[in-house]
Amino acid sequence: MARGDLVLFEEFANMLGSENFAFENGGDTFKVALFNASRSFTAADASPAYSSTNEVSGTGYDAGGATLASQSYNEASGVATFDAANVTWSQNASGFTGATSALVYDDTNASDMAIGWVDLGSAVSQQDGDVTISWNASGIFTVTVS
Hints:
The chain is mainly β. The protein is 6% helix and 34% strand. It contains 1 helix and 10 strands. The strands form 3 sheets. A 5-stranded antiparallel sheet has the order 1-8-7-2-3. A 3-stranded antiparallel sheet has the order 4-5-10, with no helix packed on it. It has a two-stranded antiparallel ribbon with strand order 6-9. A hairpin with a 7-residue loop joins strand 7 and strand 8.
């Protein structure tokens, strides 16, 4: 997997049919949280959810991660797209170090259910410079009806 690829959890397909997600702007609050190498994710995780275990910490990083701003969920020609603004943690000499993955989850959901994660490839540090997650130009994820 290349650095920055978003991987959706297999369980997310089931959650789409059994949970009330409100992806549109003004709906649920989705966040992205950063974790060190001691926490790993796989597409087959049975109950993907946010937990603070092995989450990075430091000045300029809030526990639970950053809220995805400017959320949108739109459909055109049978393809629904969830998107949001890119996320940046500005450089901070006392910021986090060792972030290797980023979890996208629904903070409004009582279980903090996760939808996917981003492999950061190698450890990144807020102390070395800005850390930015730039979503794909086609959106964070799409659902295609065929």
